[in-house]
Amino acid sequence: MAPHSVSPPPRAFGHGTDSPPHTDTRNCLPRNAPCLSYWHRTTRAFKYLTANAESTVPASSLYVIIGSGISGALTAFSLIENGVKGEDIVILEAREAVSGASGRNAGHVRPDAFRGFQAYAATHGSEQAIKIIKNEKLVFEKIDEFVKKHNVHCDFHPTTTFDVCLTPEFAAYEADSFTAFQRAGGDVGHVKFYQGEEAQRRTRVPDAVAAYEWPAGSSHPAKLAQWLLSNSIAKGAKMWTYCPATQIFKGTQDHWEVQTPRGTIQAEKVIHCTNASAAALLPQLSSFITPNKAQAHSVIPTRAFSGDKVLESTMSLRYSMHHFYSLIQRQDDGTIILGVSRANPEMIAETKDQIVGFDDSSANSEIVEDAMRRFKIIFPEANTKTRHGEGLDYAWTGIIAMTPDSVPLVGPIDELPGQYICAGFNGHGMARIFTCAPGLARLITGGSWVETGLPECFQYSVERLSKASQKSKTESAW
Ligand SMILES: Cc1cc2nc3c(=O)[nH]c(=O)nc-3n(C[C@H](O)[C@H](O)[C@H](O)COP(=O)(O)OP(=O)(O)OC[C@H]3O[C@@H](n4cnc5c(N)ncnc54)[C@H](O)[C@@H]3O)c2cc1C
């Protein structure tokens, strides 16, 4: 038996043992002691949080899904919907269930409406760029439909979102994108535009130069992924937590041998839903998927944003393409979740250097300070004396998976027959996974790419990897 490819050296990985320090930022399994997010802290009683954390893995399973985030959980759910027996599915998770980006994001379910068009068109052509944006609109509609159909308690709040332009330069960039998208035949029928005083009144941002508004929402992302896992487990699927897949070998008779610290599973089909850690098992991705850290904060509002003054819409508050803040306000408890862009000109060089990497064990205090200072600048009405209990509640970090062409990798890994991938969401998975994972399940169960309805540029191919360049990326849009 030979590994299908060169794998990283074995590393200590188990309960209570932190991963060793690493210099290679790519070929790396998830760190072993991640911080908790707001979402984790509010779901500690999830029944399957540490499922099978001590037991050995089964000797075989037809399907092994690696990763228990929304990609892995929804792939399992969709496979079962497509007729696969739950008992034939094993999910392996390196840490506790939903401990990756799906359990630590900023809560936005926010399709791009037009902004990314120019950047996508430059890389993929305008036809694909339109499909990418159309797909995001569809994802929002699908989540809305899914949550209602299955009565999923994930605090989903369908509403509208504002892209708030905080500088004339960014307002000009947005106007150009809007026009380019519309001219290329993109649908902007659902987008409203406001400027000057009207933009300021609608967004409550006195410095708003202009604002665009369209349908979007927010959710408790961990509850959504946990519901998907619980549902699949109820139908027979099994999950092993604290059980990383460490290597994959070619076995006999077209099987793959998935090695873990608690035994080896023989599988016909192996599905990589491993986000930024994908290259640990698929080294061909080591220069394609880059792990980037992102940070979010929960804020207990003062009176200015409480009661009937809670913000109904979500927002992306933008100084430039790369300097922005995302905001949702949870409708049930009023908590504000504030996300911060990775490329912030106000950060000191040391913090900028720390942006790439796998360390999701703590939040960065400089980013916390920037987020809280900027919140008060953008919303002067928040700049009041706080009572004990109001203000910053908590901060956390997580890892997003960037790709050089700004779109995810979905589909069969042709050079490794029987292996599949759904990863690389560029910090934008909540607006993409709800079509990608069901699409992947369709491919696995014999469907064609056309049946997935996904943009062709999402498809995994060796050619796509080799085309990978250092071209500038579209900034994540949450
Ligand atoms: C701070 C932050 C804010 C964000 N905000 C937003 C937002 O508001 N809106 C939005 O759309 N997106 C946002 N994102 C991005 C979004 O969360 C991700 O795109 C999405 O969750 C990716 O889901 P996933 O299932 O592919 O990956 P993950 O949720 O990361 O799941 C991958 C799982 O695989 C496990 N794993 C990896 N390797 C192995 C292995 N070898 N063996 C076993 N298990 C393994 C990991 O532990 C992890 O649990 C944000 C991300 C962060 C970090």
From TrEMBL:
According to the record, the residues making up region (Disordered) are 1-26
Question: Which regions are flagged for Pro residues bias?
Answer: 1-11
Domain annotation FAD dependent oxidoreductase: ranges: 64-444
The highest taxon in the source lineage is: Eukaryota
Q: Which InterPro entries match?
A: FAD-dep_OxRdtase (IPR006076), FAD/NAD-bd_sf (IPR036188)
Can you list the GO cellular component terms from the UniProt entry? Answer: cytoplasm
Name of the protein in question: FAD dependent oxidoreductase domain-containing protein
